[in-house]
Structure formats: structure tokens, C-alpha cells
Amino acid sequence: MLMNPYFESTETGDYAFAVEGTPLKFGPGVLAEVGEDAKNLGMTRVAVFTDPTVARLEPVATVVKSLRAAGMDTVVYDEVAVEPTDASFKAGARFAAEGKFDGFVSVGGGSVMDTCKASNLYATYPVDDFMVYVNAPIGAARPVPGPLKPHIACPTTFGTASECTTIAICDFLEMEVKSGIVSKRLRASLGVLDPTALYTLPPMVIAANGFDVLTHAIESYTARPFTKRPKTAIPNQRPQAQGANPYSDIACLEAIRIAGRYLVQAVTDRSDRTVFEPLMFASMLAGIGFGNAGCHLAHGMSYAVSGLVRDYRAPGYPSDPPMVPHGISVIVNAPAVFRFTGPACPERHLQAAVALGADLHHTDPEKAGGTIANRLTEMMRVTGIPNGLSGVGYGPDDIPALTEGAFPQKRLLDNAPLPVSKDQLANLFRDSIRYW
Q1: Are 96 and 243 found together in one domain?
Q2: What is the spatial distance between Cα 145 and Cα 128, in angstroms, rounded to a whole number?
Q3: Are 115 and 161 contained in the same domain?
Q4: Is residue 254 in some structural domain?
Q5: In a 3-state reduction of DSSP, which class is residue 247?
Q6: Whether pTM exceeds 0.85
Q7: Fewest CB within 10 angstroms: 57, 206, 213, 286, which?
Q8: Angstrom distance (rounded) from CA 119 to CA 305
């Protein structure tokens, strides 16, 4: 495929990849255009989803003013939970159903955008059992029956790239596990990315977002090639996690390069606002990349890290209830993951290390995974990220529970460049306990 040996065809693997994406608008000031965007999408009665903190900030005021100036009947729902749960998804869905809205606008981070996606789904196609649409094996993974109402996603963070993706993730409280819903129907009708919305982010939120960008991009670039994913029974229904492909490669490498250059500066020098535009652009690129390739082990492991949290509270995030923010739950696993996956595709790990700005003097290509791990660990220390799993409250005694929580995440684990057994997954958690 395009003369790249990584995409060499196989007898049982797929022979094509699909390119899909959300229409996106990027630039300082574009939040003020959301009213006209809503009008163009046929909205008349609009639900604006946000969380209690973002509700008090300028981006929500700008969006609401724009919607009302365009003649929209606008109602704000500001009860979205940061790191949402099945309970908060259900609450949002009730609000959406009772309000009889014909359009949705989300203004906030990934939690807000994901909650809006799920609320739109359950209000449009109600079910008696909430688990019907949830990913297998946690839920039944029933396909979304048809189109949802239009949704404009306006990120005020730059990590999750939920404005680009077909995913809505939440914690399932009783099961102590994180999972969600994946469907092309969940994709926003439009993503509106305004870098000025990032100006008030606290340092740890910037760090967590930035490492989410990096892990999205590195995992997607090092994912198994699409030619080694089993052929899809129905050709026009290739999964979101279709594996690394020539299209996602371009976006992922550039996202790694940009975030690797600007992330530390954004956290350590709050006086320079010029870094936020490239970081938000890197997030958009990583979203395009993993939206077409899919992440793998670090993200699969992160769901257990988030779901089993006991008492960790991250600076800059709500203090109640305890939670491990998504970007942190991913990066605490990532160095161990890339040391493990490096030998499966050393050239890819080496190229990612170059993009990340790693020192490659005397680097053996076969140890490129370790080179990425060392560079990430260095950046984690400088930006104040917790020291592996021990930094968010876990120890060796927690490894069995973490392994049991992560092993069902087959959508992600199977996208890794090499097979992963339960014992190997436990070893990865063990290697993630502490890095320095």
C-alpha cells in the first residue's frame, strides 16, 4: 500500500481503509459564529450542554449570545459531570428528551461533548435498558438505528478531540469500569475549534490534555496496520478502530511533532498564549488520526485506572468525587506500553520518537519504544504529571483488579501491533507503577 511495507497485504486482512471525518472550523473567534452555524443546520430550539465550571466562563456566554442573536430558542444544561458516569449520561438524556430540542450544542471538554452525544442518542432513540447501545462485552452494542439530531461540538480543552470522533465514554459505577458507545451516528455535525477558549486552563489540565493528544497520536501511529485487521463482513461498515493507515499516519506524526514542541512550554510558561493555537491544532490532527485508526493499549488500560479510583484528586479539576482525569489515566500507562510494543514495529516507534523530539544519539532502532518512553517520562516529570500508577493511588496489590478491568476492552487491546495476553497486561500494569 503506497510502497509502505507496514501495509503489506495479507490473505485474511482487509484490503482497504475508509476515510471519514467531522466538518471542522478552526480559528480564534469562531465561537461567535455558532448561531449562524446552528441556523444552517436547521436548528430552532437548542440545548447547550456544559459543566458547572465552564458555564461561568466566556465561551458559553459567547455561544449563547450568538445562538439567541440568530433567533434560536436556547436552553442551557450546565449539570454535566466531569469524567461522566452512566448516571450523569442518564440525567443528560432525560433533560434532552423532556426539552424536545431539534438541535444540540456542546461547549466544554470531552466530558461535555460525550454527554451531549449520548443524550442526543437516548433522547432520539429511547430504550428501556441503558446498556443496549454500550460497547460489548459490557453492553449489547446494538447499532444506532438512524441519524441523530444535529450537534455542534465546541471544545474548550484540547485533549479528547471528541469533536472529531464517533465515541462517547463514561464510568459505569456499579461495575467500576469505563466503557462507552461507538457509532458513526455519534459524530458531531460540526466541530468549532476556537483557541481562545483555552486561555483559562489550569496547568495540570493543560498537561493532561497534551498527553492525551500525544498518546492518541502515538498509539494510532503504532497500531496494527489495517491490512492485518480481519476483513469486515459488510464492506461499508469498517470499524472506527480500523488500524494504522496512510491517511491517519500523516495526521498523527504532525500531531506528535507539534505537541512535543509546545506542551512543556504551555504548562511551564503561562505568559505565552501563542502556544494554544498549535496545541489545539495538534489535538484536532490527533483526533482525525485516531478517529480513523484507533488507539490501543494505553487507552484500554486507562479505563480501569479511571474506573477503580479511590481517593486521587488532580489539581485544577473538581475535588469531589475523586477521579483520575482521562489524560492522566492514559499517560501513566504509556511509557510501559511503548517499551512493550516497540519491538513489534521498531521503525514506527523510531519515527514517532523523532517527531516527539527524543534524543536519538546512539539509539538502536530495536529499542525505539524505550526511547519514546524515556522522552515521555522526562516530559511527565517537568509538567508535574503523577509518577505512574503509584502517583494516582495504586500499588502492586491493585494489579489483579486493574487487569480484570482492562482486559474486556477488546476494541482497544485488539488494535495493538501485537497480541496481548492477560498475563502480559498484568505485567504492563506492574511496569507502570513507578517511572522515577
Answers
A1: no
A2: 15
A3: yes
A4: yes
A5: helix
A6: yes
A7: 57
A8: 25
